Amino acid sequence: MNWNFKQLFDLFSNNDNVHLMLSGRWGLEKESLRVTPTGNLAMTPHPEKYGDKINNPHITVDFSESQVELITPALPDIDETHRYLSELQLFAEESLDNELLWPLSMPGNLPLDEKIPIARFEATEKGREKEIYRSGLALRYGKKMQMISGIHYNFSFSKEFFDFIYQKLGIKTEQKAFKDWVYINTIKNFLGYRWLLIYLFGASPIGTDEYLNSFVQKNTCLCNKPNWEYSFDCPIKDATSLRMSRFGYENAFQNQINVSYNSLDQYIKDLRKALSTKFETYTNLGLFRDGRQVQLNDFLLQIENEYYAPARFKQILNNNETMLEALEKRGIEYIELRTFDLDPFERSGIGKNQLYFIHLLVLFCCFEHCGELAQTDLTRFNDNAQLAAVFGRNDKLVLTDNQNNKTSLKEWAQNIFSQLMQIAELLDRDSSDNKYQDSLLIQFAKLRNMDYLPSSTILQTMKKTQKNYIEFGLCRLAENQKSTQSDEVLAS
Fold this sequence. Notes:
Blueprint: H1 5-13, E1 24-35, E2 59-61, E3 67-71, H2 78-94, E4 100-101, H3 125-141, H4 143-146, E5 151-157, H5 159-168, H6 175-201, H7 209-218, H8 264-274, H9 280-285, E6 288-289, E7 292-293, E8 311-314, H10 323-330, E9 334-340, H11 352-367, H12 375-391, E10 398-400, E11 406-408, H13 409-427, H14 435-448, H15 454-465, H16 469-491
Antiparallel strand pairs: 1-3, 1-4, 1-5, 2-3, 5-9, 6-7, 8-9, 10-11
């Protein structure tokens, strides 16, 4: 297929159809921990005011009974989606009795692993399966890793967007296959460029001393390459996102799973293989303990959601369908991007300017052609992402570009920004504001001065105020609440 950035950009800029680039549906999923006023994990049940965990589509639990997940519907406007998340956040906070929602991805003070409460459900077949699945996660990875929280960004292009390109380019393949191909191309490019998002928006450069002393030290063996020089005396010197690093939310054994993104059929086939392949380490953990089932199975993945990919293909589920069955029947409906830390300087965990920037990058990833990916390409993508997560604030950091050349992070980012600016100018062309260009300039400033990175700002604020990690998190909670109260006064 003849597909490249200039061709797609010209296609939209030379026609009166820029509005199609602004059309689509956006959804957000935000995880956060309930904590006490001292920053300790709340050990109380999921609040009754949140409704039923299984049937409430907007507020539920994640791994732990203490881990709240807020879910917006898929809405046709970025601002509307952000507003919906903000309202969910306010409702969730106001429904708590002497508890708070922790504003950072890395957890606050956690009890001993065995005391962290797994989410509990009603004694139904569905509820029992959910509990056993979480018990399996706890056995496989430890509960503390599961307490790391973040935001997932769900996006779909509009039908009109696909129709316009399909007709203008005279695509000969069946339209459903073309739609799948566009999403596949977008995801493949996203995997290759996600290091930029980790650099710009990483907001987990530090955790509690307890976390650093146990989890990070336990995983020092993972830093076994020349690029991964590591000193335990200063494990976070240049980090942007521990959450997205090998010291964060990662399945250490998922390097056993090779999932191809070159076609939807191969993606489904590879995941099904992982869902049916026994793994000796998990077999040795046992399926039952003291007469109680503690894993759904001993396969590489218990269920599809256990595949901790930075991006996944999604389809709306019908009754009793699995995601792979839905993808196989109806193709890709939307994509899920999973690389975003909670921003402690935003009450809802993510700002509108960040959402605008992500949209720009998604369009860039759509327009840029990506060929077949070999396993070596995926390894290169992962290495770049890990380097940005652990060493992103090192001014001399070097990545490996798409031509396998060594290049500085900043030089490569500047080249990408020049194309993003073309898209931003086009999107703002008929607008009364310049929100896309403004969002881009805000991010570009981070390339010129790393002090503007949220990861830097967190550490600088802690140093300036002489507060530890827990104290910083509690201060951010108070400041975010003050900010919202001021906004409400002004609005009234």
